[in-house]
Amino acid sequence: MQHIVVAITGASGSIYGVRLVEELLKADCRVTLLVTRSGFDVLRYETGLDLSGSVAERREQLRARFDAPERLDHYDEDDLFAPVASGSSAPDAMVVCPCSMGTAGRIAAGLANNLVERVADVALKERRELLLVPRETPFNRIHLENLLRLDQAGARILPAMPAFYHRPRSIDELVDFLVGKILDNLRIPHRLFPRWGEGSATAKD
After folding, report:
1. pTM, 2 dp
2. Is residue 165 a known part of a binding site?
3. Sorting pLDDT into bands at 50, 70 and 90, what band is 201?
4. Residue 88 labelled as part of a binding site
5. Domain annotation for the chain: domains and CATH numbers
């Protein structure tokens, strides 16, 4: 069973992280969900998912929301004693989705001031998969240089840029396209969108 850490930060696009967790659990993965303080605010504003109380209470709220009591875990962003903070317990992969440019910059600088940044640092040093899903536009030069540094360090940059060749008819289908691309990069099978040459697709991604 693959162990994937999903981190939701304060960038807009928290629905991508929520859908990713749903699909990873559906694929029988073990998921550790990390959410920054600003990520909680954006989750509440954009999706209505209001997580409150102690970390144990939030963990139970998340397990109920995703109906996964055995395979979903959650730690506070300040808990640097969490198992995933250690290279000896490194997850198979980490996805920061969405990834704020502040978080990207701190990871690129090698900082580890919270659990999200520490797990990303562990992923890089242990040569595990690290996928960052930035949701920002336009990028300035600092953003681009930080993303380049992350790519050179071994991370994969997967911007929140859905395609339209599959003729999406809803926001859900646009979200699913991006989540499917993340799953592709994790080598997890899915049927979230028709691939080029399948169905009614008529233009290349």
Report:
1. 0.94
2. yes
3. low
4. no
5. 3-185 (3.40.50.1950)
